[in-house]
């Protein structure tokens, strides 16, 4: 049976000239059976790495998410078609520069556990169910399962985040706001827009993870200076994010409308009809630029930080 060797500190009393000296610590090794090692440790490390990477990227790119939400919500609020520049100027005039980070608290509240859950599930699925050399189909399934689980668990916070960013709702406390939504709209309010969120996040993560892992598989790591690897991973993340963002943008538009006006848009058919009648096919790509920038940069940074932290932990990604 294979065994792990772990250091152990022993207290030793040394005899000097017939007298006992003060106790000293001596490092010895104790053989620990491999089955005694906790399998939860790698999962916890991947959770911590994912949470930190998600927090960093969320803080940096929150303004892009706010702009995207307000560009999409301008139709719902009756303001007509509002462009990116108009939204930024309006926020700076009315709310100062800090207004661009409105909704950052629920974003962090969602990202810290949400991204941690996602990365720990990715690590677990790859370790226990993967073939070791992840193929495109495995990548799709792993990315989809991890994101679908994390998105469903954290969806009430996602609803709150969208409403914070829209400027329509005057929420000022996460617990109080969640209780208000539940008391006035019930569970349906907390999970409004779940269907398009799943339709957006699951394909995005599945496609992103597939593109990311497959592009990485072509890299000759033995010929690349390790100092350049984080930069290479970041650029791969940008490419994967652009491809995945374009495919899933319509679901993001539908999600925003359903979360901001759940009474009006009660199902996918209603919201699809509304968007198409109002803007045609172009309406399903509203807010693509800020969302693509945010998702690409966030995902690229999150994966880069995650990979570096996991490398520091001595774990494979």
From TrEMBL:
One Gene Ontology cellular component: mitochondrial inner membrane
Protein family per UniProt: Belongs to the mitochondrial carrier (TC 2.A.29) family. SLC25A38 subfamily.
Protein's GO biological process: glycine import into mitochondrion
Organism this protein belongs to: Acanthosepion pharaonis (Pharaoh cuttlefish)
Alphabetized UniProt keyword annotations: Membrane, Mitochondrion, Mitochondrion inner membrane, Repeat, Transmembrane, Transmembrane helix, Transport
Keyword Transcription carried by entry: no
Main location: membrane
Designated name of the protein: Mitochondrial glycine transporter
Catalytic activity from the UniProt record: glycine(in) = glycine(out)
Function of the protein: Mitochondrial glycine transporter that imports glycine into the mitochondrial matrix. Plays an important role in providing glycine for the first enzymatic step in heme biosynthesis, the condensation of glycine with succinyl-CoA to produce 5-aminolevulinate (ALA) in the miochondrial matrix.
Nucleotide-binding in keyword set: no
Coiled-coil ranges (or none): none
Solcar repeats: 41-128, 134-218, 228-312
Membrane topology note: Multi-pass membrane protein
Molecular function via GO: glycine transmembrane transporter activity
A Pfam family annotated for this UniProt entry: Mito_carr
Subcellular location(s) per record: Membrane; Mitochondrion inner membrane
